Amino acid sequence: MRTSRLNERIEALRQQMRSLQAMAKNVELAPDRQVSLTDPDARAMATHGKGTGLVGYNVQAAVDTDSHIVVAHEVTNLGHDRTQLANMGR
C-alpha cells in the first residue's frame, strides 16, 4: 500500500516536472523572455514600490484641455513609456 502511494507521488512529480520544463521552454522562446499565463500579450510593468509590479499594458492618452475629450490613445505592452510621448505629440 505504501509503495503504491509513493509510486503515485513520484509519477505526479514527474508530470509536474514535464509541465515546468515545457513552461521554461516557452519562456526561452518568447522574444522578451516573458510569458503571462492569463493574457499572452500582457507584460510585466514596474510600479512605484521597490521590487513590485504587475502584469498588464501601458496606456497613453492625449486629451484636449478645453473640451476634455480624448483625442488620441495608444496601448502597448512595453514595460516603460519613455518612447510614447513623441507618438502622442504627433
From TrEMBL:
Residues 3-30 form a coiled coil. The lineage of its organism: Bacteria, Pseudomonadati, Pseudomonadota, Alphaproteobacteria, Hyphomicrobiales. This is Transposase. It comes from the Bacteria. Keywords: Coiled coil.
